[in-house]
Amino acid sequence: MRRSFVRSYLIILAVGPCFMASARDPFRVGANEQIRLGQQVAAQIRRQFHTLPPTDPRVQVLRRVGRRILSTFPDSETWQYSFDVLDDKEINAFSLPGGPTFFFTGLLNKLKTEDEVAGIMGHELTHVRQQHWAKMYSEIQKRQLFMTAALIFLRVNYTGAQLVDLANNLLDLKYSRNDESAADQGGFENSSNAGYNPQGLADAFAMLDKLPGHEPEFLSDHPSDNKRINHIEDDIKRSGKSYPAQRQLPWATVAP
Fold it and tell me: Taking phi first (over 0 means left), then psi (-120 to 50 degrees means alpha), and beta for anything else, what does residue 230 get?
């Protein structure tokens, strides 16, 4: 999902303490460190924003959906999942390394069905399970090490360094886009495995596609919403399954 807000927190993680890397990749952050860092940032977020209480219907729905999806994961105990709603108009949802997951009221208030929530939830939890943040951090560290050595060796001037930085950013977009596509597939599988209608994820993207401020796909770290919708609906057709009707959210209003 759209992550402009959380990027600043991920930068804090990236430039913060030294990480205990995995044995297979000296740059890859291990699972325990991902959990620890995710918990630290989650605590900062809860202090900065008003977190809705457990009695709020939106929190109850979010946690019910989260538990239902987690019940289908064979590795659910690997991470420390939590599900919270932040009272803010931003239309966003995100998961932190290790499992903390947040939805903004700005997004929840625009969704119509529990299946849309489940599709987005399944998308975000895929980022956690596939350790996309750790992968991104590893790739950035490797490129920065290489680029720094190259700039020193070649004595590149400031303009040249700016071009290298631009190329580096474009590489970041490519990696993020691949991860977003994998998360879309995860959203489809996770929501349908939990008994939800995966059309909900496509409907959520259709709603987001109507919002102002979209960037061109080639400058975005997300595939275009139309491509995402088409891919999900193609997967629904290929599955040959009959999915249950979507469940309307208690606070949603249906247009006449």
Answer: alpha
